[in-house]
Write a structure and sequence with these properties.
heterodimer; A: 567 residues; alpha+beta; Immunoglobulin-like; eight-stranded mixed sheet; six-stranded mixed sheet; 11 helices; 35 strands; 19% helix; 41% strand; elongated; B: 196 residues; four-stranded mixed sheet; two-stranded antiparallel ribbon; 6 strands; globular
């Protein structure tokens, strides 16, 4: 302190005097600012134009008072008979950004953005941006890639730039940076996968920017409307009631009950969400006080239950589903309870025959992810796709709802396939492959793989039908927990190996369109049987080019059709 | 399940098949070949016995399919024993072992680019042929994958094995099983001979 006073009495370096900018405009300062020991000092008379800052001296310090209760105390020096104080620490103390650029001798002052706080719950991001002084943000959506851009003019970020990784749902991360000082502009970018929707919850001019955003899971009007409702949900001080308990109770093999206890009778609303399939139960006007519930092992339909404070006034119970469900929400007999009952959609509404049955067909491999190559040089991925397309047509004609993981020779990752079936709420999943092993001509026949016990009946039914209709050797139904497509699917699922491409005879058969039609038909008939249908479908209805029936053995058939081989 | 099937199978095979096969071949196939000459550039020192897993086809009333058969091999001491073991696996079974029905598991041309070990996880880096020349269905992929994993876990006394191709992680070798996370030993497909 002493030495500064002594020094301050001496002559200053003959440096150009600093220019001070507030909100991007240069403001006059007389007497002129001084640089002492690399710090910028201003006279106590300096006026913070456009900002409400009061400056006074007290007990040998300069005291600055800014917005709210913000106060800064800094020591002063005497310089050319005047009281001077260091402006950067002073501003920092009253939530103003002050950046000194020595090279250009410019000092930039602007309201400081003190913090950026993201909160993510169930794919909805609430962003709170706090500034020391009112700011006026501009929010817009930018494409390629999709992002939300928040521009805050006349502000300084607490740091030059920062990145906050999020990585939840479609929300990747938040980047913030001082875009420019002249004029002062802070840019905050939320990187998202997909077109975001948002609401600014705060006023036009505010010290706390609050906004909420999300990306609709599918670009359907329903998804957008749902998101709109969530974005519009009230968000003000404290909720009136509390959620005090959530209980998960299996009822029977095909239904589960979830009981939510609240401190007062309240209504809830249920939103079905996909990828992964789940239900969100929102309880408005409540604060969450309940512990995470236990989900008893073997609870049907339910993978897990998560709780969260969705907004300040909405508690959310998220039920991760193992399969598609029907649900009803009602008030329980006890006042202050909500009862959500889940029932298997498949069990509740038996698909009549296979009408309406959602079947995800998965032609194995494809694109650059090549499968095996047959002795004849045919590619497995093409055989798989051809059989799947034939089956697709049959299912379509039978008014089922077939879907495909690929329709062409596309590269689809292994994990994406079960994810598609889960997202679409498929009732059953059938992966179609052709086989090969380490020794040519050693094996032929049908192998059927499954991963979970729930898939056994489907596996056995399709397998028996294939063996019977094709007259092919039975190489067993096999449980293999490690296969990705049957392990990750949440509905009954199988992987069919429809024949050996490194067996000369079977490879030749698989090269015949008529044989592939019979394979598709056998799978189709298997599905019908699995769904409780007795009679296999008439081949004319199933799109077969001829009335050839399943009693014809493979060899006899190929003899009669050998001349029509295509590949 | 599979294990019980295998045990039941053992009773049959061990009694009938294995006996037949022992009587047919002068050298028991599970024994190391006697006149193996070590590679010319091998360091001096006593060679070490390691276990390699090759494939063998089995067909009985109880079980149809492929199993992994453990085979003992002398491997010369080397700076990277795990790499030496993998190279022996890539070389495939001896002609005697082939006569006894054992089949090589690694696809043609597969080279071992490197093996590293960190905290009980062995990372094995293979050339692209492991994926490009793989030619098989779900079962054969299991055989190939676990011949690598079981061999390495045993030789390196490791917990799990991570597969890399040309240094990069790979989602799957053959499009049926995941290979993008460390894999643990799988005993369900191992044929234990007449030991039990």
């Amino acid at each position: 302190m002493l030495c500064i006073i002594l020094l301050a009495g001496g002559p200053l370096l003959a440096a150009p005097s600093p220019h001070i900018y507030i909100g991007g405009r240069e403001v006059p300062c007389t007497p002129s600012p001084a640089v002492i020991d690399g710090q910028v000092y201003v006279p106590v008379s300096f006026h913070y134009e456009g900002l409400s800052v009061l400056v006074r001296t007290e007990d040998g310090k300069v005291v600055l008072r800014g917005m709210g209760e913000a106060e800064a105390r800094v020591p002063f020096v005497m310089h050319q008979g005047m009281i001077y104080y260091p402006i950067v620490p002073a501003c920092t103390g009253i939530r103003l950004g002050a950046r000194w650029v020595e090279k250009t001798q410019k000092l930039y002052i602007a309201p400081r953005i003190d913090s950026i706080r993201p909160e993510v719950f169930d794919r909805m991001l609430t962003l709170r941006i706090t500034a020391g002084y009112p700011v006026t943000p501009k929010v817009s959506v930018v494409s390629d890639p999709w992002r939300l851009l928040i521009e805050v003019p006349n502000a300084q970020l607490f740091t030059e730039s920062t990145t906050i990784p999020i990585g939840q749902g479609e929300i990747t991360r938040i980047r913030a940076a001082q875009y420019s000082y002249e004029p002062p502009m802070v840019r905050i970018v939320v990187d998202v996968e997909g077109r975001p929707q948002y609401r600014v919850l705060s006023g036009l001019e505010t010290t706390q920017i609050r906004l909420r955003m999300g990306v609709p899971e599918a670009p359907t009007p329903e998804a957008c409307t749902l998101l709109d409702q969530l974005l519009d949900s009230p968000d003000s001080e404290g909720a009136a009631w509390e959620v005090v308990g959530v209980q998960v109770e299996p009822v029977d093999e095909k239904s589960t009950r979830i009981v939510v206890r609240t401190t007062a009778p309240v209504d809830g609303s249920v939103h079905p969400l996909s990828s992964p399939p789940r239900l969100a139960l929102d309880i408005p006007n409540t604060t969450l006080r309940a512990p995470q519930p236990d989900v008893p092992p073997e609870t049907p339909l339910v993978q897990g239950v998560r709780l969260g404070q969705f907004t300040e006034r909405i508690s959310r119970v998220v039920v991760d589903l193992a399969e598609e469900v029907e649900y009803t929400l009602s008030k329980g007999a006890d006042p202050g309870t909500l009862v959500l009952i889940l029932r298997s959609a498949l069990g509740l509404e038996p698909v009549r025959g296979i009408q309406g049955l959602k079947v995800m067909l998965d032609p194995g491999h494809g694109g650059s992810l090549h499968g095996t190559t047959g002795l004849s040089g045919r590619r497995e991925q093409d055989i798989n796709l051809d059989v799947a397309l034939r089956l697709y047509k049959m299912l379509e004609q039978a008014k089922a709802r077939p879907m495909m993981t690929r329709f062409g020779d596309d590269t689809v990752s292994l994990h994406a396939r079960p994810a598609m079936a889960n997202a679409k709420g498929a009732h059953i999943f059938i992966s179609i492959h052709a086989n090969s092993n380490g020794r040519p001509n050693s094996a032929r026949g049908i192998e059927t793989y499954y991963g979970h016990d729930r898939s056994y009946r489907l596996a056995r039914t399709l397998h028996q039908q294939l063996v019977k209709e094709l007259g092919a050797p039975d190489r067993r139904v096999r449980k293999r927990p490690g296969l990705v497509v049957t392990r990750e699917t949440k509905m009954p699922s199988v992987l069919l190996e429809i024949g050996y491409m490194n067996h000369r005879e079977e490879d030749r058969l698989l090269g015949l369109p008529e044989y592939r039609q019979r394979v598709a038909k056998a799978i189709f008939n298997g599905i019908v049987k699995y769904m409780g249908g007795e009679a296999a479908l008439d081949s004319r209805n199933a799109g077969s080019p001829q009335a050839e029936e399943s009693e014809v053995g493979a060899i006899e058939l190929t003899v009669s059709l050998a001349g029509e081989e295509q590949h | 399940m599979r294990r019980t099937t295998l045990i039941a199978l053992l009773a049959l095979i061990a009694a009938a098949g294995a006996l037949l096969w022992w009587s047919r071949t002068s050298t028991p196939p599970m024994e190391p070949p006697r006149a193996e000459t070590p590679p010319a550039n091998a360091p001096e020192g006593p060679s070490q016995e390691v276990t390699l897993y090759f494939a063998r086809e089995v067909s009985s009333a109880e079980f149809v399919g492929w199993v992994l058969v453990p085979v003992q091999r002398p491997v010369a001491p080397s700076a990277s024993p795990e790499q030496a073991v993998l190279e022996a696996l890539a070389a495939g079974p001896t002609s005697e072992e082939r006569q006894a029905g054992l089949v090589a598991t690694l696809p043609n041309g597969t080279r071992v680019l490197g093996v590293q070990r960190e905290d009980g996880v062995i990372t094995a880096n293979f050339s692209r042929e492991l994926q490009e020349n793989f030619n098989g269905g779900a079962e054969w992929e299991e055989v190939v994958l676990y011949s690598i994993v079981n061999t390495l876990v045993e030789a390196g006394n490791a917990g799990s094995v991570r597969i890399r191709i040309e240094g990069e992680p790979v989602e799957s070798i053959g499009g049926h099983l995941a290979a993008d996370e460390p894999l643990q030993r799988n005993d369900d497909i191992v044929f234990h001979g007449n030991q039990r």
